[in-house]
Specification:
5 helices; Elongation Factor Tu (Ef-tu), domain 3; 3 domains; 4-stranded antiparallel sheet; alpha+beta
């Protein structure tokens, strides 16, 4: 009996040591776990048209789910389509003008100019002969000085008319200047830019969803005349899901960008979400009132962001959450 007492004492001591060791480890584990509070970030976008006009359709209502690229609303595009038609006609006219410049003058026009030059050459030659004859007869007093001067004036006029016709022929044969063609090409480029802007305005009469989300607010109804930029729908974005949380200065050194954390909600406590810290603010601020912790309400804290890896429909925007981060 006396031999059993030391054995029992030894067992009790070992058991106590084991209990103490487990309790200590659990306490240390709890002390290493950093528990912080925040909310699922409310991320929304106000959607409107880049152009003004009359609203003809609103295809989604509050609570509807939307997909990227899905058409949500339309404006009356008739005025903008008419601008497109006008711009296309302008481009076509300028292109035809450029083709004319690059092709040069027609052979018939050049042939006509050559014929005119030959005609005026003959006229000038005849006027020259008449002038010389009158000049010779003036010495014998067979003609008057006035007759001789009239023949000289006719000769000089015929020479001038011949020179004008020759210059016109040279212009037709040379074609249009390089500068004129360059100007015509620049006019076409400007008209094409105007056409592209008009086509873009037609596209802007269709409002599309930028990403996955839910319609929060339907602000306008068909028939309204809207200035550019007026909000038609407000959409809550589904991805990515961020959590906005705050950490006090003493615990700031225990977190860092890229650190893995778990996110817990009151509605599904048995289903934590995983995520990582993506951003830590370099500036301190007073704790927002929606962070319901007594110690932090009047403390300066640093805001940080958690990007949730596995969000689902249960993680609603604005929902209060608890973030746990371990060393």
């Amino acid at each position: 009996m006396k031999r059993r007492i030391p054995v029992v004492l030894a067992v009790v001591v070992v058991a106590g040591f084991v209990v103490w060791f487990i309790y200590t480890k659990q306490a240390e584990s709890k002390s290493r776990t950093l528990q912080l509070f925040g909310n699922v970030d409310i991320r929304e976008v106000n959607l409107g048209f880049r152009v003004s006009g009359r609203l003809t359709q609103v295809l989604r209502d509050e609570g509807d789910e939307v997909r990227p690229g899905e058409v949500l609303a339309r404006l009356d595009d008739e005025p903008y389509r008419r601008e497109v038609d006008e711009s296309r006609a302008q481009v076509a006219a300028l292109r035809a003008h450029l083709d004319l410049l690059e092709a040069g003058n027609r052979p018939q026009e050049i042939a006509q100019a050559r014929a005119l030059v030959r005609e005026r050459e003959a006229t000038a030659a005849n006027a020259e002969r008449l002038f010389k004859r009158q000049d010779e007869l003036l010495g014998t007093k067979a003609v008057s000085i006035q007759q001789r001067d009239d023949s000289e004036a006719g000769y000089r006029e015929a020479e001038a008319r011949l020179k004008s016709a020759s210059e016109q022929l040279n212009l037709l044969e040379a074609g249009f200047r390089i500068e004129d063609i360059a100007q015509a090409k620049a006019d076409i480029a400007r008209a094409q830019a105007t056409l592209a802007n008009a086509e873009l305005r037609v596209e802007d009469t269709i409002l599309k969803a930028p990403s996955d989300g839910y319609v929060l607010t339907r602000a306008q109804e068909p028939g309204a005349i809207l200035p550019a930029g007026t909000t038609v729908l407000t959409v809550s974005l589904k991805r990515p899901v961020w959590v906005r949380a705050y950490v006090s200065e003493p615990d700031l050194g225990r977190i860092h960008p890229g650190m893995k954390v778990t996110v817990h909600t009151d509605s599904t406590p048995a289903k934590p979400y995983t995520g990582q810290i993506g951003y830590i603010s370099p500036r301190a601020e007073f704790t927002p009132k929606n962070v319901e912790t007594t110690q932090l309400r009047t403390s300066l804290v640093y805001r940080f962001r958690v990007v949730v890896d596995n969000p689902d429909e249960a993680l609603r925007q604005g929902m209060p959450v608890t973030i746990k981060a371990g060393d």
